[in-house]
Design brief:
Elements: H1 2-5, E1 9-20, E2 23-34, E3 38-42, H2 49-56, E4 69-72, H3 80-83, E5 87-90, H4 104-109, H5 126-138, H6 154-166, E6 172-176, H7 184-198, E7 203-207, E8 220-225, E9 228-234, H8 235-238, H9 241-248, E10 253-257, E11 260-264
Parallel strand pairs: 3-7, 3-8, 5-6, 6-7
Antiparallel strand pairs: 1-2, 1-4, 8-9, 10-11
């Protein structure tokens, strides 16, 4: 794992095109993400943000082109089973997948093997259960540990999914609207948890609609619109009033306090 942390770039995407229903939902997307960088991606609905995350995670494969590249931790070709533990992914698209009778503790622990819960074939060590308990506590859902997943609220599931994503100590954490469905105190709690992950050298890429979900440790923000990256630069420049007003095609006011941004129309 140390070798991966020492790679100069965690991610390098070149000329990614994704087409669906006769239109591009991602068009000529290129970016480099340095190891240890913390990045936020924002933009209107349908901008291509989640698709870009799925391309990085290799859940979506762009059109085959000679100039397309997807290099993760210095390698273009991966056995997917070897790559999975290196990328922690939290996405709303997983919500229905986790509508199961398995307990929270089982769901988090089974993230070690990328399985959905356990059956009699699995032999789970005490170390894995201990790690699961640690991540559950970090996410602030220890009171749910024995509850079946299908009894949880959307916000509770999202925090469990974060704990599960973190159990392999992945050097790359992809958060696609991880706070969606949480009330604002719970969002603040989750933001605090994500900030803790940002202090240990791992690379974090977060997609959000709410500027106040962006952790203070984020220094770079990517703006997307109509499937394209329209700005990629430092946070202060990206979250400037006129730039966001142009992005969303309406007047946007921006407020910053103690490194946390908020926006309203």
């Amino acid at each position: 794992m140390a070798k991966i942390y020492n790679m100069k770039n965690a991610v390098e995407i070149k000329h990614a095109y994704v087409r669906r229903d006769e239109r591009y939902i991602l068009e000529d997307a290129s970016l480099k993400i340095s190891t240890g960088e913390r990045i936020a991606i924002i933009g209107p609905n349908g901008a291509g943000k989640s698709t870009l995350i799925d391309v990085i995670a290799r859940r979506t494969y762009p059109l085959a082109r000679d100039d397309y590249k997807n290099i993760i931790f210095g390698k273009e070709r991966w056995i997917i089973q070897e790559l999975r533990p290196l990328i922690g992914l939290v996405s709303p698209s997983y919500d229905s997948f986790f509508a199961t009778k398995y307990s929270v503790r089982e769901i988090v622990a089974s993230g070690i093997s990328s399985s959905l819960g356990f059956d009699f074939h699995h032999n789970i060590s005490d170390d894995v259960w201990e790690k699961a308990d640690i991540e559950i506590a970090k996410a602030g859902v220890q009171y749910l540990s024995k509850r079946p997943m299908d009894t949880l609220s959307t916000g509770e599931k999202r925090r469990v999914m974060l704990a599960r994503a973190a159990i392999t100590s992945p050097p790359l954490l992809l958060l696609d609207e991880a706070s969606n469905g949480l009330d604002f105190p719970s969002r603040a709690d989750l933001r605090s948890v994500i900030s803790k992950y940002a202090t240990d050298g791992r690379t974090i890429v977060m997609v959000t609609h709410e500027l106040n979900e962006i952790i203070p440790e984020v220094s770079r923000v990517i703006l997307m619109k109509n499937g394209k990256i329209v700005f990629d630069g430092n946070k202060k420049d990206a979250l400037e009033k006129d730039r966001l007003s142009s992005l969303y095609e309406r007047t946007v006011e921006v407020v910053e306090k103690d490194g946390i941004y908020s926006a309203f129309c």
